[in-house]
Write a structure and sequence with these properties.
Blueprint (H helix, E strand, L loop, with lengths): L2 H5 L11 H13 L5 H9 L20 E4 L2 E3 L2 H13 L5 E5 L5 H7 L4 E6 L2 H13 L5 E5 L12 E6 L8 H4 L2 E11 L5 E9 L2 E10 L10
Parallel strand pairs: 3-4, 3-6, 4-5, 6-7
Antiparallel strand pairs: 1-2, 7-8, 8-9
Length: about 220
């Protein structure tokens, strides 16, 4: 029995939201190139159907992005797995800042792998829904904030890693400034239709930027709502 199903019977799911459906999703992720067993094991247990509208629950374990309201989406499972894998590939971070809580799914994945997650969301309704889910699932190592994510969380910096779940036209200097000296930032960057997932790390000569492939994310917006 999984960690989550012990806490809440609704986490187990039935039919298209069952453990068998999650196992099939993991098989697809492996076939698509995800290799990190830590990431796969967490996503095998995590009840993604709880993070979307009940009307879409039967599609929760398809490898596709789904709407969550407010013009936002829950990311495709492959993208969540790829970003998480890239974040922990070189070194397992202790403190991670997430920009764009959204449904809370990416944050919940990270929370099973690292010591502490700090997450910032500009849309209050989404953040309140995510907080309820964290409590329901017994996820206690997440701190959340309703604020403009482009500004990060300077009072808690530096962070060992930063992950963005929305795409800016360029990397935000305020976020790069909040990385620890050996930190890692994962972010989609670029205009719609031409976005690239990038990993950024610092070395003696400055920032080293690595492209991890094409992606499609909602835009990174400022302000709060």
């Amino acid at each position: 029995m999984s960690l989550f199903s012990r806490r809440d019977s609704s986490a187990r799911g039935l039919g298209m939201t069952s453990q068998r459906a999650r196992d099939r999703l993991i098989e697809r992720l492996v076939a698509e190139g995800i290799r990190d067993r830590r990431v796969l094991d967490v996503m095998r247990q995590l009840p993604r159907h709880l993070f979307i509208d009940e009307a879409l629950a039967s599609r929760a374990y398809e490898d596709t992005a789904l709407p969550i309201g407010q013009g936002q989406t829950i990311s495709q499972p492959f993208v969540v797995a790829r970003m998480t894998e890239a974040l922990i590939q070189l070194e397992l971070p202790r403190r991670v800042l997430e920009i764009g809580t959204g449904s809370g799914y990416q944050c919940a994945v990270l929370a099973q792998l690292v010591e502490q997650v700090y997450t910032v969301e500009r849309i209050d309704e989404l953040l309140r829904n995510a907080r309820r889910l964290f409590r329901k699932l017994g996820i206690a190592n997440v701190r959340s904030r309703h604020a403009d994510g482009r500004l990060g969380w300077p009072d808690e910096a530096p962070f060992d890693a930063i992950i963005l779940t929305a795409a800016g036209a360029q990397l935000e200097e305020a976020l790069l400034d909040q990385l620890a000296p050996d930190g890692c930032l994962i972010a989609p960057v670029g205009p719609p239709g031409r976005q690239q997932l990038v990993r950024v790390r610092a070395d003696a000569e400055g920032w080293v930027r690595e492209s991890l492939g094409a992606v499609s994310f909602v835009p990174l917006l400022g302000g709060v709502g």
